[in-house]
Write a structure and sequence with these properties.
Blueprint (H helix, E strand, L loop, with lengths): L1 H14 L1 H10 L4 E4 L8 E4 L2 E9 L7 H11 L2 E10 L4 H5 L23 H14 L3 E8 L13 E4 L3 E2 L2 E2 L1 H12 L11 E3 L16 H9 L3 E7 L5 H18 L3 E3 L2 H6 L1 H5 L6 E6 L2 E5 L3 E5 L3 E9 L4 E4 L9 E4 L2 E8 L2 E10 L1
The structure holds zinc ion.
Length: 358
């Protein structure tokens, strides 16, 4: 076998100088580190009583934690009336790297997307989810910049609709009703939540880029009512952002005959409990066939030819590993000398596992 392999190798090098170069390069990799895939989570909750059906999407933009944390909280509630389908982390690689779009803006990828795009699989999955489930209402959650009530060009703190209505799908009335109800509970003038109509379907819209967005896709391609909820990145705390999301979601749920347990009023009053669940963090690795548990910063010296695989994590469903030394999309990484892997809970860094080939 060995002789045959060598013969093949020499033949290859003789036949193609490029192949020879490739093989020479491949041999300089000394260890393989395999990280877990980015799961696409979807949670389906159904109540005993009949009611509306809503799909909640969080984390299209990775640096908007108020949005994906609010969606995450909803996953842990019971539904009494109606149905919920929740996809809290649409863009997990961007959440872990805390970027708006690690692979470019995902909210511009719903019209056309090359199958070569690193986000292709997740966008396709989301589209299939919408087409398959056909909810009465889709809410996509974001934390935008600034405060729309005092700056009409800012996307923060508003309910965004693409049109007043589209082919019988009524958007404006419902959005204004929610806006009216939540604003009764908001004292700070800057933080009030008005309705922002982008008139995406109009020829002379100021926002033609929105024709590539998730809500436009829902309306045009699926005839699904879709509304975008924005809190502000500039709110003082993460709790504030999550609270405003839940405040809006609560009113949409009421309009659509959806009831959760405990109530969202209770959740908002006890928000810290839901936002920071008590847990411990740890990862399980397989290093050259041996299982090892890590729960803090650690450096492993690896002999050449080592194979490392991150098997699983304990903590929340936001826990995963990512390396900033290479393209963060990569899940199987071949290293020649060293690699640092950060274990994170969404945007939060937990610990770093370093590998050095000796
Ligand atoms: Zn956003």
């Amino acid at each position: 076998m060995e002789n045959l392999g060598r013969r093949e190798l020499i033949k290859g090098i003789l036949l193609s100088p490029f192949l020879g170069l490739k093989l020479a390069r491949a041999r300089s990799f000394n260890a393989t580190i395999e990280l877990p895939p980015f799961p696409f989570e979807e949670t389906y909750l159904k109540g005993n009583l009949k009611g509306g059906r809503a799909l909640i999407v969080g984390g299209i933009h990775g640096n908007e934690p108020g949005a994906y944390k609010a969606a995450e909280i909803l996953r842990h509630l019971k539904v009494k009336k109606g149905e919920l389908l929740i996809a809290p982390r649409a863009n997990f690689v961007s959440i872990l790297t805390n970027k708006r779009g690690y692979n470019g803006d995902m909210n511009r990828k719903f019209a056309y997307l090359s199958p070569k795009d690193p986000d292709y699989g997740r966008v396709k999955k989301l589209k299939e989810l919408i087409k398959g489930y056909k909810p009465d209402l889709l809410l996509t959650l974001h934390d935008g910049f600034g405060f729309h009530a005092v700056n009409k060009r800012a996307w923060g703190q508003c309910i965004v609709i693409d049109e007043e209505s589209y082919r019988g799908i009524e958007l404006g009335k419902e959005a204004r009703e929610v806006s009216k109800r939540v604003n009764k509970k908001i004292e700070n003038r800057e933080w009030k939540i008005p309705v922002y109509n982008t008139h995406t379907f109009k020829k002379d819209t100021k926002h033609p880029e929105q024709r590539k967005s998730l809500t436009y896709f829902c309306l045009k391609e699926c005839r699904v009512k879709a509304i975008c909820l924005e809190t502000s990145k500039q709110l003082p705390s993460l709790e504030d952002k999550v609270r405003f999301h839940l405040l809006m979601v609560n009113e949409f749920f009421k309009l659509h005959n959806i009831e959760v347990e405990p109530s969202l009023d209770y959740v908002m009053e006890n928000l810290k409990e839901y936002l920071y669940p008590r847990t411990y963090y740890q990862g399980e690795l397989l290093i050259n066939g041996r299982k090892i548990t890590v729960s803090g910063n650690k450096t492993f010296k690896l002999p050449k030819g080592s194979r490392v695989k991150f098997l699983s994590f304990h903590g929340t469903s936001g826990v995963n590993a990512v390396s900033f030394d290479v393209n963060a999309n990569l899940r199987k990484i071949r290293i020649s000398r060293r690699l640092a892997v950060k274990v994170k809970d969404d945007f939060k860094e937990l610990f770093t596992v370093r590998f050095v080939v000796s």
